[in-house]
Specification:
This protein has helices at residues 2-15, 23-34, 44-49, and strands at residues 54-59, 65-73, 76-81, 86-90, 93-98, 104-108, 119-125, 130-151, 154-167, 172-181, 187-192, 201-206. By secondary structure, the chain is α+β, with helices and mostly antiparallel strands. Helix 1 packs antiparallel against helix 2 (23-34). The longest helix is centred in the first third of the chain and has 14 residues, at 2-15.
Length: 208
């Protein structure tokens, strides 16, 4: 994977003119692709000073980005970034994106009182276009009462679930993880692959 990332960025550097792409910009992008940034829990001061609930998003090991909670409608949370990327979540799971290279949205076919039960969804992909195909989701308990650094130096106990999704029509499947507080059941993070052409997206939730 490291060699593959190096080849991609070296090719990009050769195709990009010096006038539009500085050495520092290239160095930063190569660092992100090859080495990456490990997410670090935010400080309590940052959490307390935030006026609104927010989430931290990270694609692979790229630089984390903050999204602000703009609205909640029928248990669907709308998160918006400074550059107007929009991510919609329900029960902590990403159900729609707007502004990414490979956007998607999903609508539940089955309705369960318990969101952790197996479910079916109608899904539409963009870039390339594929409309209203069926996806199946299932959850499996992985581990409980695991120590998790929620804020810098402050730990809580969480339960971890494997969240699998499968789309037989396109012969695609993905393994995801869902993280919930052991005491309240609140979803605090997810690692989700929602599109076969888009890397895993991690979301860390900070609700106020």
């Amino acid at each position: 994977m490291i060699k593959k990332a190096q080849r991609i960025f070296i090719s990009a550097a050769l195709l990009t003119s010096c006038s539009s792409f500085t050495y520092n910009q290239l160095t930063n992008q190569v660092y992100e692709a090859v080495i990456g940034f490990n997410y670090k829990a935010i400080d309590r001061s940052e959490f307390e000073e935030a006026k609104y609930s927010f989430a931290i998003a990270q694609v692979g090991k790229t630089t984390p980005v903050k999204l602000i909670l703009a609205s909640v409608d029928n248990n669907i949370f709308k998160w918006v970034s400074a550059d107007n990327i929009i991510i919609y979540t329900q029960n902590g799971i990403i159900i729609k994106t707007n502004g990414l290279i490979n956007d998607f949205f999903s609508v539940p076919i089955t309705t369960n009182s318990n969101p952790m039960m197996p479910s079916k969804h109608s899904v539409t992909f963009h870039s390339p276009e594929l409309t209203q195909f069926q996806r199946q989701d299932s959850f499996r308990f992985l581990k409980t009462n695991t120590e998790y650094e929620f804020l810098n130096g402050e730990y809580i106990e969480i339960d971890v679930f494997n969240y699998s999704t499968e789309a037989p029509l396109i012969k695609w499947s993905a393994k995801n993880k869902l993280f919930k507080r052991s005491d309240t059941g609140e979803v605090i993070a997810i690692e989700q692959t929602f599109h076969p052409h888009y890397p895993t997206l991690k979301l860390y939730y900070y609700l106020k």
